[in-house]
Fold:
Amino acid sequence: MKSVVSALCLTLASTLAVQAQSTLRIRGSDTLGAKLIPSLAEGFKKQGGKISFDIAAEGSSTAFTNLAAGTAEVGMSSRKIKPDERTLCRAKSIAINEIEIAWDMITVVVNKNNPVTDLKKKQIMQIFAGDIKDWSEVGGTPGPISVYTRNTSSGTYKDFMTMAMKGREYGTNSQKMAGNEQIVSEVSSNANGIGYIGYAYAGAKGIKIVSIDGAAPNPAAVKSYVLSRPTFLYTNGEPAGTIKEFIDFCRSPAGDAIITKGGFVPLSQMK
Amino acid sequence: MDRPETPSRPPLRSLIVRNRKRTVLGMDPQQVIKHFFGANASTAVIVLVLIMVFLLREGVDFLPTYRHELETYREAGLELCDIADRPLKEQQNLTSILRRAKAATTDPATKEALTDAEDAFDTAIEPATEVLDELKEHAQETKELAVEFNTLESSRQQLLAAAARAKDPAEKADLLKEADASKVDPVDFSERIMPLLERRGELATALIDYTATLEKAAAALPADNPLVQEVRAAVPQHVSDIKQAAADLQAWKQDRPVSMFSVVVAFFFGKQWITNSSWQDFYGFVPLLTGSFVIAFIAILIATPISVTAAIYTNQFATEREKELIKPIIEFIQAIPSVVLGFIGISLVGNLIKDISEWGILQWVPGFPIQERLNMFNAGCLLAFMAVPTMFSLSEDALNNVPRAYIDASDALGATKLQTVFRVIVPAGISGILAAILLGLGRVIGETMVVLLVAGNRIAIPDFSAGPGVIFQPAHTLTGIIAQELGEVSRGSSHWQALFMVGIVLFAISLLVNWCARTVARRFEAHKA
Structure:
């Protein structure tokens, strides 16, 4: 009887150990975690990576809280780590290691029936800050502008503020949407809507990309587009073992293909 | 001799066994069950108390934290910059109208005049904004230094604490060294403010100059256009605002203390809820409160007639078979998860309202055609739907509780059925119906998922100047803001505490509504007697 119990315990323990070793917990940004990282994980498994993934995407900040709490091996973030987050991790004896993974282009979109195709950078700032209130002011059909932004928890919210608006506040007429998909569906249903989304979502129906100062987001010319930004993975110390294999895969040609397909720009293309 | 002995002395073994069966922890089964039930009841009370304690503990620090932030806002001179910045922003409004007027006009001469006017407006403001921008930059730098000092100081404390915990001496030394490296001097606000104070005279002069050029430019505006008239009418107010600001600049003092009272006012009566800002976070409660109230008002306005008339019908006119059909169906609505309703609101109700609003024959309705499919009216409709079961069941109970004798008496006096219903039954059950409405209100105010998905999440006080059409504007709510922002804020920050304060207020509102409902219902109990 005793031997049976102990044998059971042993098997259970060993399965648990195997389980723990082969599960990679990834936490963080919605921009990365909604589509890109899962498809990279899928690709990694297909080419023989013996590992299971546990991915949750609830905003860039959760990457660091989870790393600090030891509940994630890899954190994804659409922005750089903040100093206080670095200290938080350091205080928990986590040595933060930053790995650039891909570039994203924040894309300004309007309803597909909107005659406006190009906006100046200053006009974009004025629209999102609430100074320009009517489409006729920028050469469109008269009608009040509805501004859709991400919510304050998003890394993109802040990035857009710094990159496109010189750090000014969003106007009080802006509506805060939970994610890229919601912005797409509101802009596509509202003839006077404008919003910004990750380039990966820009192919959706009912919306139209607006070029900024004549330059449309283009994977071939990322650095010259004003709203380009790098995205990152964070690990505890130098990646090793399966984590390293996975990250190497992400930066391999096979990974590049997945990244391109996902609407991001691989690093190899940046050079 | 044997017989009397047997009952007085049962066999020892059976006595022990029977006793053992009966007692658990020295109590008989009845007592055990009683205590079990009692414990369950008290758990509910204890949990409620714990929730209140938890909310208060997290939220109560908000006022001091916010006060400290507002102090930094003042000491770093950000407030000084905002005195000039707020009225200057109005200029953007004026040029916006001018641009619209320019787009609307077809006459090339007017167009040119308007282009000139817009240029004149823009060049007029330039000297003032130039000075202001420099001041803002300096003030922000001061604030960042202060924030950096605070973060470094708290991170130093964290590192020291980690060092105290560390077992490995090398790691300990490392941590201590890092802690030492993050030691900085606190910011000397009174010194950092000097450039701002020295230049505020310059800024005030620039503002006065701006008003003079602006008035000149406004006088040169072409006259025939209604939009231009609007600008012309707004200019005097704008000019006097700017002049006021110039005077306020001179009167501003860095060391004026921020009183606790003003912090409370800033929270409960603040009109701005700005978070994650690079300039200054403001936690003003009014936009969220108005959003919640307007939505709740719409919901109750829609749900009350539906549920009360349905209750009257079911209670007084329906046949038994109808009753068996209506009651379970209405009560079933309660079983629909609110997130499902939210999806219906986005995909179905929103589009429906929008399409209907574009019908030609309905253009007399204020606010039509609507632009946003996610708006307060949409959220109100869905919440009304959710509140109907609660209000229906409780109103029906209230009508049921009207004493039979009242109805018989009314019948005996020869009243018709309708007369009995409206003159006797409804007045007798009115306090129960009111309680039902209030409890429905409580349900509506606390609902989160639907408003988060459907209300449009615009953090601004609805523009009531639009008249009744205001209900087709988007808004944000007390519950929605907690759900949307709590996931991301770092624990213990002012933003976190502000959200808990919102939670406390929400809790208080719910308690108040429920208390009102109970009070009203108690009056109704008296009726029954």
Remarks:
- Chain A touches chain B through 46 residues (CB under 8 Å).
- Chain A has a mean pLDDT of 84.
- Residues 104-221 of chain A form a domain with the D-Maltodextrin-Binding Protein; domain 2 fold (CATH 3.40.190.10).
- DSSP finds ten helices and twelve strands in chain A.
